[in-house]
TrEMBL record:
It comes from the Bacteria. Gene3D superfamilies: 3.40.630.30. It comes from Lysobacter concretionis Ko07 = DSM 16239. This is N-acetyltransferase domain-containing protein. The keyword Transferase applies.
Amino acid sequence: MSLRIRDADPADAALLAQWAAAMAQETEGRALVPATVLAGVQAGIADPARARYFVAMEEAVAGGRETITAPVGTLMLTREWSDWRNGDWWWIQSVYVEPGYRRQGVLRALYRHVEQLARDTRGVVGLRLYVEHGNAIAQRTYAALGMRDAGYRIFESGFDG
């Protein structure tokens, strides 16, 4: 399989929102409100200071001439300022790979792409992500990419509405 990673654009918003909802259902058993997720993805795509989305595209040549591309996975980056390090952590979020393309290198390609961008961007101190405690498959996948448990727990106080 040949993969190309590209920045998302506004035309991708509906698919990325669909994938975000599917990921939430699969990993956390959460049903998200489609209109809210779509608005969130659209806002993220429109404002790179909020988020940056990447799409993995499968590329195949048909008939020896025509290149057919299809989106097969995505991830989103956000930033967190670290005064301890005087730089930004890039957080990997909203990771999703189409079920038929899992375990075929799609996430690895997305990860390596953003890892290289991070290394090439002045002031980025590293990559982080969070994963559900019980999601052992994802934990093994991230460990295989060279990530490690940072030893933190995440606490939150959500505000409904």
